[in-house]
Amino acid sequence: MDVFDDLTAEYRQLDAVLAALTPDQWAHPSAAEGWSVADVVLHLAQTEEAIDHRSSVAGKVYLTSAEATVDGVVEDMVAAERGISPADLLARWRKAAFATPDALRAHPAGTRLSWVRATLSPRTLATTRIAEHWAHAQDITVPLGIPYPDTARLRHIAWLAHRTLPYAFALAGLPDTPVHCDLTAPDGARWTFGDPAAPTRITGPAAEFCRVGARRLAPEETGLATEGPHAADALRLVRNYAA
C-alpha cells in the first residue's frame, strides 16, 4: 500500500462528497462541536496549506507558541477566516490538498518535516493527513446521512494509532507497555501490529479501533476486546496522530 497514492485516494473520496453538497449542507452543523461543515473544510484547507509544497524544504510549523494548544490554535485559525463561499472554499482545499502527495513523495530519504511540535518523515506526515481527512469526513458525512465507506486505507490509520501508543502512555505517566493489536479489516482481512507475544492485546474491528483513536467512538460502544496489563488504558489513550 503506497501511502502517497492512498492519500490521493482519500482526498478523492472526500472530494466526491464535497462536490455534491448543497448550500444548506455546507452550512449544516458538523459533528465537530461548534463547527459547520464549511468550518471543517476550512480547517482542512488551512492545515494542508501549512505543509510547504516545495520539495527542498521542511513543512511549516503552524503551532508557534509553547503555551498554545493545538485546539486553541486551529479554533482561532478557523474563526479568523470564517465566511468564505463554499465554491471558493472547495477550490482552496483542492489546490492545497492535491499538491500534497507529490510534494511529500519528492522529499529525499531521511528528510524530517516539522509538524506542530514534532518532526515527521514524509510518509508519516502523509499518514497523519489520511487520518485527519478520514476523521473529519466522519464529522461531515455522519450528521448529513451521507455514506462514507471504510476502505483498506484504514490500515495506515491503525498503524499510526498503534505506533504512537508509547507517546500516549508517556503523556499519561504510564510505563511504555508493548501492545499487540489484532484487527479485522473492512474486507475481513487480518491486520496485526506489534509483538504477538506481548501480554497486552487489543482485538476486534479495525474500523472501530480507528474511530476510537479519532475520538469519534467511545471504547465501551465498540466490539473491541482488551486483554492484559494496561490494555484498557491503551484503548482509552490511543490517538490517530503523531504529536
UniProtKB/TrEMBL annotation:
Domain Mycothiol-dependent maleylpyruvate isomerase metal-binding: 8-140
Pfam families listed in its UniProt record: MDMPI_N
Molecular functions (GO terms): metal ion binding
Listed name of the protein: Wyosine base formation
Organism listed in the record: Actinomadura craniellae
